Amino acid sequence: MLRIHFSDSDLARTRVATSPDPLWEVAASLHRLQTKVGRWAYADWHRTTTARIRERHLDRMIREVLIPLFPRAAYFPDFLTPNQSEGGLDAGLAAVLATPPRRIERELGILDRRVGAPSWVRRLTELPERERLLGAIRVYHDTALAPAEERVRARIDAERAARGRALLDGGVHRMLAGASPSMRWEPPVLHVDYPAEDRDMWLQGRGLRLVPSYFCWQSPVSMFDPELPPVLFYPLLHEPAPGAAGDGEGEPLTALLGRTRATVLRITAAGAGATTGELARAAGVSDSSASRHASVLRDAGLLASTRYATSVLHTLTPAGAAMLRARRRRPHG
C-alpha cells in the first residue's frame, strides 16, 4: 500500500497530465509484453505489435536491452521516466540523456540489488551508451506505441474529461475519490494499491501529477525516490474489453451496429463519457461523422448527450450498458 499525504497546498497543486506520457507508456507496454496477465484488454495491440517486432527483427533488442531496464518487477530506474516526458518523447529522451552519471549509477545499483541487471548496464553512465539506449527506446516506441497513438490519446482524453467533470462537480476531493478502483481517498490521505512495499509519500506542498495510462494494468506506479517531483501513474479501466480494432467482421456487436457505431459505444462506456471529438479520434472519422453516429445511437436509446462547455458530452444509457454486458456474456462454442 502507498499512502500519499496531502496538505491544503498539495490539493491546490494536484493536476491531471495533459496527454499520454510516452516514456511511462513505454515502460508499461514493455510490462505487457512480459506477462499474460490482463492480455485480454490488449489482445489486438499485442497481436499486431508482436508481429511488427518479428518483422523488424527487434526481438533480441527488446529482450536484451529494454526488458532488463524495464522489468515487470517492484522496481525499475526512475531516470528512465523523467518528469520532462510530459512534454513529449523528444523532451523525455533529452532528459534521460542529460541524467547525471552518479544518479544513473545509484539507480542501476538499486536495480541490480532488487531485481538483477546485466553487466552492460553499468556503461549507461557513459554518454555514447545512453545514446544507443535512446535509439532503442525510440525504435520500440515507433514500433509498438506510435501505431496505437490515436486509440491511446482518445482514452486519455476521455479520462481527463471525466476527472475534469468530477473536479467541477465536487472539487478535488471528488476528483481523487473517483480516479481509480485501485485508489481510496480518505482525506487527507490517498491510499493506493501498490505493487512494491508499504510506504508513505509526503507531498510537502509540491502537489501531485496524476498520469492516466492506457498500458498500466491494475496497480498504479510512482517514483522510488521521494525527492523527485511527485507523480502517480495509474491505469485506465479496460471495461468493456478492447475496442473495435480487434473485432472480426462477424463479431455480434459490430455486425449489429456497424464497426464505427460499435466503437463509439465502447469508447463512451470506457471513459465515463466522451465528447464528439474524442469519439471521432477513437473511431478514425470526422467530428461531423462521429456526431451523426452518436445521434443514431442516442435515438436508439443507447446514448445520452448533453452540452458540456463548448462540446457535447455523450454518456452510456442503461440500455447501452445492457447491450455491452450481453455481448460479453455471449456463449463461446
What does this structure look like?
The protein has 333 residues and is an alpha/beta fold. The chain folds into three domains: 2-17 and 152-235, no CATH class; 22-149, no CATH class; 244-329, Arc Repressor Mutant, subunit A. It has 13 helices and eleven strands. It has helices spanning 8-12, 22-33, 43-55, 59-66, 89-97, 101-114, 127-145, 149-177, 252-257, 259-270, 276-283, 287-299, 318-329; strands at residues 2-5, 15-16, 183-186, 189-192, 199-202, 209-213, 221-222, 231-235, 274-275, 303-308, 311-316. The strands form three sheets. It has a four-stranded mixed beta sheet with strand order 3-4-1-5, with helices on one face. β7 and β8 form a beta hairpin. α2 (22-33) crosses α7 (127-145), α10 (259-270) packs across α11 (276-283) and α10 (259-270) packs across α12. The longest helix has 29 residues, at 149-177. It is globular and about 60 Å long. The two termini are 41 Å apart. Residues 240-250 have low confidence and may be disordered.
The biggest sheet amounts to:
4 strands, mixed
Query: Strand fraction band?
Result: 5-15%
Please give the count of helices.
13
Average of pLDDT: 88
The end-to-end span amounts to: 41 Å
Rg from C-alpha positions? 21 Å
Give the total of beta strands.
Answer: 11
Backbone structural class:
alpha/beta
Question: Runs with pLDDT <50, length 5+?
Answer: 240-250
Order of helices and strands: EHEHHHHHHHEEEEEEHHEHHEEH
Helix content: 40-55%
Strand order of the largest sheet: 3-4-1-5
Tell me the domain tally.
Answer: 3
Shape type: globular
InterPro entries: ArsR-like_HTH, HTH_ArsR_DNA-bd_dom, Metal_resp_trans_reg, WH-like_DNA-bd_sf, WH_DNA-bd_sf
GO molecular function: DNA binding; DNA-binding transcription factor activity
Protein name: Transcriptional regulator
Pfam families: HTH_20
